[in-house]
Amino acid sequence: MGIVAVFPGTFDPIHYGHIDIAQRGAAIFEKVIVAAYDKPLKQLLFSPEDRLALVRTVFDNHPKIIVTGYSGLTVDFCRQVNAKVILRGLRVFSDFEHEFRMALANHRLVPEIEVCALVTREQHTFLSSTTVREIASLGGDVSSMVPPLVQEALARRFKELGGDGQTLVPMTALRD
Ligand code: ADP
């Protein structure tokens, strides 16, 4: 029997960087379970249901990728679904420290689960959900960063939120 990997994330929203990691993982492992955290300690733009629905639609026809939500510890979820690997993506150096810390903590909790981090593709190095949210909140073009259905969902969500949308998007350096 092949190895099952869990690819956990917030996916607020899912973008081409995430999609690339999930697809490359599916080329290595028997099955990749893309698992959206239910209630991360972050301020989110989309509800758990909306984040999950977008991820589901993106991988709808992929034979080796399964999508689900989860809550609680990632290692507990891995044990529930019999996954031996946690799949993650690495962009820039700053990701490394965070991923390293989490990998060691997860390993302490459940030593038999391994973390496998794939290095991003060059064209996705800068891409994050935060960047996507900020550009979309200001009416910028995110078509090279997210699939069309995510682009539409972003437009709908910011319209729905009106002026409140800005408060859900952290200020960085993309404005002014
Ligand atoms: P989290 O809150 O766990 O960081 P994210 O949804 O932001 O959740 O990211 C999930 C995983 O996808 C993380 O391992 C993250 O490093 C990875 N990831 C995010 N953006 C990219 C990208 N552009 N290229 C490769 N991996 C990425």
What does this structure look like?
- The chain is of the alpha/beta class and 176 residues long.
- It has a domain of 121 residues: Rossmann fold (3-Layer(aba) Sandwich).
- The chain has 6 helices and 5 strands.
- A 5-stranded parallel beta sheet has the order 3-2-1-4-5, sandwiched between helices.
- Strand 1, helix 1 and strand 2 form a beta-alpha-beta unit.
- The protein is globular, with a radius of gyration of 16 Å.
- 33% of the residues are buried.
Short description:
The protein has helices at 16-28, 48-58, 74-80, 93-109, 129-137, 148-161, and strands at residues 4-9, 31-37, 65-70, 85-90, 114-119.
Which strand order does the major sheet show?
Answer: 3-2-1-4-5
| Terminal CA distance | 54 Å
CATH fold category name of the domain at 4-124: Rossmann fold
H/E element order: EHEHEHEHEHH
Write the layout of secondary structure elements.
Elements: E1 4-9, H1 16-28, E2 31-37, H2 48-58, E3 65-70, H3 74-80, E4 85-90, H4 93-109, E5 114-119, H5 129-137, H6 148-161
Parallel strand pairs: 1-2, 1-4, 2-3, 4-5
The structure holds adenosine-5'-diphosphate (ADP).
